[in-house]
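User: quick one - fold this with nicotinamide-adenine-dinucleotide bound?
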Amino acid sequence: NATKVGFIGLGQMGNRMATNLMNKGYKLNVYDISAEACDAMKAKGAEVYKTTQELAKNSEFVVTMLPNNDIVKNTYEDMIKDGVNKNTMFVDSSTVDPTVSQYVQKIVKSAGASFVDAPVSGGVMGAQNATLTFMVGSTPEEFEKVKDFLGGMGKKITHCGTYGMGEAAKICNNMMLAISMIGTAETMNLAIRLGLDPKVFNEIINVSTGRTWASEVNNPVPGLSPGTPPSNDYKGGFSTALITKDLGLAASVATGSNSPILLGGLAHSVYRLLCTHDLGNKDFSVVYDFIKNKTEK
Ligand code: NAD
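Assistant: Sure. Structure tokens for the protein plus nicotinamide-adenine-dinucleotide:
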């Protein structure tokens, strides 16, 4: 399989996703503003491009994995300004506002090529192990064209609807994740203050109606989920800075759609506060450490 893939944004997620594609036999063309990130991919056999325009012209698929709305918008405007190959399929896997995906789809379509949004969940480990979940916003025909390709980087590839609906699914999932993490953290703190043994209580919620991913897989109380960030000083995992970004996107789409998000808005403020306390780089389960009673009763 000598299909050429352009990959733009070789950070925590992108470098691992691009490496998996290379391991599956795709020929990788790469671009990043960081020379270091490019060099690391070059050492693995990728071809480094100096401009995104050249990269796109030499690629059948182009994947972007970039930090935010403005960078995604600017990157696409710049990449397609001198025209594109009609059969290039552009895929944005960054987490951005659905309206950004819809705008980018329009300009790519006007230039004559195709675009789909395909954000991911599963984090750095999912990127590493090619077990990401892809949420795709596209036509059914475009979904068929990208499904197997995305399967080279992920395990579950779901068509969510038209352009922007992949991002909508991603943002809604992460808002729920943030709310349930804070809920688990304050509930665990209360249970402990009431005198319950955290291990016993956690066993109860995990076979009861309070169970969530946050209680069962990544319990914020150190020691309850061995081998996870809460049991390792909240290092690694899904950063507080990234969940704060995603909650900002939720606040924005909620405003745009007149949707009340009482707890989502509160979760955004809680995580913004954690960022001002220098906890942006810690796993988002650190909210437990932030709100727990630090003194004995
Ligand atoms: P990162 O900051 O590690 O990587 C971003 C990369 O983009 C960097 O290498 C940076 O140099 C590069 N970059 C920045 N501006 C650029 C430009 N103009 N042109 C080319 N390259 C540019 O971020 P990440 O953790 O890999 O996340 C990427 C995206 O994936 C974000 O939208 C994030 O929200 C989303 N995401 C991240 C995770 C996660 O756990 N890290 C999980 C799911 C989704």
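One thing worth noting: Residues 8-14, 31-34, 37, 65-67, 71, 75, 94-95, 120-121, 123-124, 238, 242, 245 surround nicotinamide-adenine-dinucleotide (CB under 6 Å).
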